[in-house]
TrEMBL record:
Domain called HAMP: residue spans: 295-347
Domain of life: Bacteria
InterPro entries, per the entry: Bact_2-comp_sensor_kinase, HAMP_dom, HATPase_C_sf, HATPase_dom, His_kinase_dom, Sig_transdc_His_kin_internal
Enzyme type, top EC level: transferase
Record keyword NADP present: no
Compartment(s) where it occurs, according to its Swiss-Prot or TrEMBL record: Cell membrane
Annotated protein name in UniProt: histidine kinase
Catalytic activity as recorded in UniProt: ATP + protein L-histidine = ADP + protein N-phospho-L-histidine
Ranges where the Histidine kinase domain occurs: 457-569
Primary location: membrane
């Protein structure tokens, strides 16, 4: 590919360099032809207008009225003569929005091809260019581009005009009036051919734009333009342009055409690019054909390599499905058979680990200390003997419910609602036993009450909060449950406002939370004897890597424990200790 592509690129660059001047020469020639055609149309408009003005200047009847006494103009004969002359001029200058003709005499004579309501011709006397017009020779023509003249205020698009003004002389060669013809720029702009990136414009002798397709450019002075410069290229705003000009024979104004150098060369680059693309296309087809032929030989090896990579990423349920009599197919069949044996062994190990997990769970649940139950029953009995109030009935009810949940081990999972009910009974009994008042608040978000959780998951942490967090003093315990909808995770937070723990103890607790070492006998205190570490081990066996435990604590502020594991719903029937079923 390198041996073919590098020569192609070199050929492209050399051809582009050698054909550059030829393309530019053709572009200049084409622009000059277009400019000549546009110049011919412009000259035709101006020369026709000049011929009409010559007829007016040479008309004896018009000169007679301009040199007549003002009183004669208002006589009946003068009015008849004026009307006849007006009809003649109207026929000559066909009424059009592109042409405005004005004749003004020093004796007060006035003729216009437009209504006075549109424009008052006497305002011409106040124009600054009138002094220049008065200095114009009788046989000469005064040319000027007007950009702020409105002959019709309802049409703001008629503000740009080309003015042709000529003095009118009597037979004695004295100036008796002036003829002013304004040609609307909209009559000229259609002959400016602006296409394919080319820009054509009409400039006056000072380089000011007289006519342009873009009306916003009219009146703009081209600082880069120099009359009779003889340049073929100009630089405008840092970009190079091809420059072609043509002087009008009627008024010595310049028709200018500029073409961006990039646009002029773009067609050449396009042809070269097409040529290069065709060569690359044939080379690509040849490469594809060669690749197809080679792939028939290498495809089994490529498939086998990809298959082994997927197996290396842990996708043991994949099979190669490569068949044939070659060596790669034989190796693939051997790997498939090996994966079948591995998958069978994994299923057997999973079954054994599930049985082991259930056995360990039953062992952990069997660690509940029965001495607490007996001590608690004795305390309730003594209280009943000493006080016969309603409180004892509530204590006995809490104890009954707690014993029912303790002795029933048929179901590993129960709804979170039942777990929190058990915690409520447990806190009631602990408040009675330790003579301190711990207030329990629970906030279960929608959808969490019926979520299935492992039995006695929260109780060990409540026990630690009451015994170790409050040190026989009252306090508050908050239990909150919510669901993270995006991940389908149940989050349970247990928080107290007890004495908390130091950073050293917190660090040690975090490090040993998942430890499988045997718990020392002196650490087995409280109702369950399981502790936070047993809870973490139990949930890790059930949920694996999906289980997360976060512990935070501050001295004299409290401790917060957050449990996260996958959300699960289901129907669970709980068989009570006395033979009844609860939901």
């Amino acid at each position: 590919m390198i041996c073919v592509l590098i020569p192609l690129v070199c050929i492209y660059m050399v051809t582009d360099y050698l054909t550059r001047d030829l393309i530019l020469e053709k572009a200049v020639g084409s622009a000059r032809e277009s400019l000549n055609a546009s110049s011919a149309n412009m000259n035709a408009i101006f020369e026709q207008t000049l011929e009409q003005s010559n007829f007016v200047l040479q008309n004896s009847e018009i000169r007679q009225m301009m040199s007549a006494d003002p009183e004669t103009l208002h006589s009946a004969k003068g009015i008849i003569q004026y009307n006849r002359m007006s009809r003649m001029l109207d026929d000559m200058f066909v009424l059009s929005e592109y042409l405005k003709v004005t004749l003004i005499g020093k004796n007060g004579f006035t003729y216009t091809s437009y209504p006075y309501s549109d424009f008052n011709p006497k305002t011409f006397y106040s124009e600054r260019w009138m002094s220049l017009l008065k200095q114009t020779q009788p046989i000469s023509t005064f040319w000027r581009a007007e950009h702020d003249t409105y002959y019709n205020y309802s049409d703001k698009g008629s503000a740009n005009w080309v003015m042709i003004a000529r003095p009118i002389q009597s037979t004695s060669s004295s100036t008796i009036g002036y003829m002013i013809i304004n040609i609307n720029e909209r009559k000229l702009s259609p002959y400016l051919n602006n296409d394919n990136g080319k820009e054509m414009m009409l400039l006056d002798d000072k380089g000011t734009v007289v006519s342009h397709v873009d009306k916003a450019r009219i009146g703009e002075t081209m600082t880069w333009w120099k009359k009779d410069s003889g340049l073929d290229t100009v630089e405008i705003s840092g970009e190079k342009f091809l420059y072609v000009d043509q002087e009008l024979s009627s008024n010595k104004w310049q028709m200018v055409s500029i073409i961006p150098m990039k646009a002029a060369l773009s067609k050449n680059k396009q042809i070269l690019f097409i040529s290069l693309a065709v060569q690359i296309l044939f080379f690509t087809l040849f490469s594809v054909l060669l690749t197809v032929l080679i792939s028939k030989l290498t495809q089994p090896i490529v498939k086998l390599s990809a298959f082994v990579k997927r197996i290396g990423r842990g996708q043991l349920d994949e099979r190669s499905l490569i068949r044939g009599k070659n060596e790669a197919a034989q190796l693939a069949r051997t790997i498939d058979q090996m994966l079948d044996r591995i998958e069978s062994m994994i299923e057997q190990i999973t079954y054994e680990q599930t049985g082991k997990r259930k056995a360990e769970l039953e062992m952990l649940q069997a660690q509940i200390n029965p001495h607490f139950m007996f001590n608690l029953l004795n305390s309730i009995r003594l209280n009943i003997l000493m006080q016969g109030d309603k409180e004892n009935a509530e204590l006995i009810g809490s104890l009954s419910s707690l014993l029912r949940m303790t002795f029933n081990r048929d179901n590993e999972f129960i709804p979170l609602r039942e777990e929190t009910d058990t915690i409520s009974h447990y806190v009631t009994l602990m408040n009675f036993r330790h003579a301190n008042q711990v207030r329990l608040e629970m906030n279960l978000a929608d959808g969490t009450a019926e979520a299935l959780v492992p039995r006695f998951m929260i109780q060990p942490m409540i026990e630690n909060a009451i015994i170790h967090g409050f040190e026989q003093f009252g306090g508050e315990i908050f239990i909150e449950a919510r669901i993270i909808a995006t991940t389908g995770t149940l989050v349970i937070t247990i928080k107290d406002n007890g004495i908390g723990m130091s950073q050293e103890n917190l660090k040690r607790l975090r490090e040993t939370a998942y430890s499988s070492e045997r718990i020392a006998e002196e650490d087995r205190k409280g109702f369950s004897g399981i502790g936070l570490r047993n809870v973490a081990q139990r949930l890790s066996m059930i949920y694996g890597a999906s289980f997360k435990l976060n512990i935070s604590s501050e001295p004299d502020v409290g401790t917060e424990i957050c449990l996260e594991f996958p959300l699960n719903y289901g129907k669970v029937g709980i068989e009570n200790a006395d033979g009844n079923f609860g939901g």
